[in-house]
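Board notes (copied after class):
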Amino acid sequence: MITILRTNPDNIDFIQLIALLDKDIQIRDGEEHIFYAQFNKTDSIKHVVVAYDGNIAVGCGAFKVYQGETAEIKRMFVNPENRGKNIASKILGALEFWAKELSFTSCILETGRRYPEAIALYKKNGYSVTTNYGQYEGIDDSVCFSKSLS
């Protein structure tokens, strides 16, 4: 059974999962990794969830304040051996629920064109492709999404 823990970026399981995520991103993004890595720091993140299968951490996600009542989803990851079990959707749903509890009215996020499984996940969960925002404006490899929480 999958359980979701609300925590913060100091959680050791979150830190270990993020290390795995960063290795995957570095391979997929290649030369563009340095550009994207600057936007994936956890110093401005306060809201983290970690998914557990029993006592084993299998996935994570986070959100931070983007602007006003908009939260930005960050650092979504599920271990490859645990994919295909709806864990990422559970993580995303938990993040949205938490954000809504904190009076956020929408979520935005960015992923890359090299991540078709992430694009499919967000579309499946009601996110719509939107104009690239903020630091992703004009970046062809970025795909940005938004979703109303109301």
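Comment from the instructor: The chain has four helices and seven strands. The chain has a mean pLDDT of 91.
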